């Protein structure tokens, strides 16, 4: 039997870290959300293992007792760096400042955050359709960052993945 891939190890780690947590509204295990974000990246054409790992772990530092040092120890500094960029800290910045910062954060983290927002908006469209447009609208700065960095996204990920990311940013922006 072969050794587990980093993504497989990250999935197991996320399951354990989020054990007992459920999504508001649906009541499904929270880890389903992180899997959804990773799947959306894969569906867009992203094959970067560290990005998939970071998508699976993007909420562990923010929402559990897991530390960034633990993520780095198990999954390396690159994946941990993406998780760090994804982690919102109320004591450090406002939510609007956090979202606006993706204009200068790594392209990888911008892509992960777009898919995170997409997954959250989709959940709201199903569970609270009246709130989905408002929630989508709260991230205008994130979509603006994607639009402004479209050329960089194409250069980094290629035409098809970047095109899918920009199309999703446009869809979310139009919901507002």
Commentary on this structure:
It contains twelve helices and no strands. The chain is globular. It has one domain: Orthogonal Bundle (Hypothetical protein af1432), CATH 1.10.3210. Helices cover 70% and strands 0% of the residues. α2 crosses α8, α3 packs across α6 and α6 packs across α8. The model has no long low-confidence stretch (mean pLDDT 96). The chain starts with 5 loop residues before the first helix and ends with a helix. By secondary structure, the protein is mainly alpha-helical.
CATH class type: Mainly Alpha
Structural class: mainly alpha
The fourth-level CATH homologous superfamily is Hypothetical protein af1432
Number of strands: 0
| CATH third-tier fold name | Hypothetical protein af1432
Q: Give, in order, the helices and strands.
A: HHHHHHHHHHHH
Average pLDDT score: 96
Major sheet attributes:
none
Cα-atom Rg, whole angstroms?
A: 15 Å
Tell me what the CATH architecture is.
Orthogonal Bundle
Number of domains: 1
Strand content: under 5%
Number of helices: 12
Poorly predicted sequence stretches spanning 5 or more consecutive residues = none
The helix content, as a percent range, equals over 70%
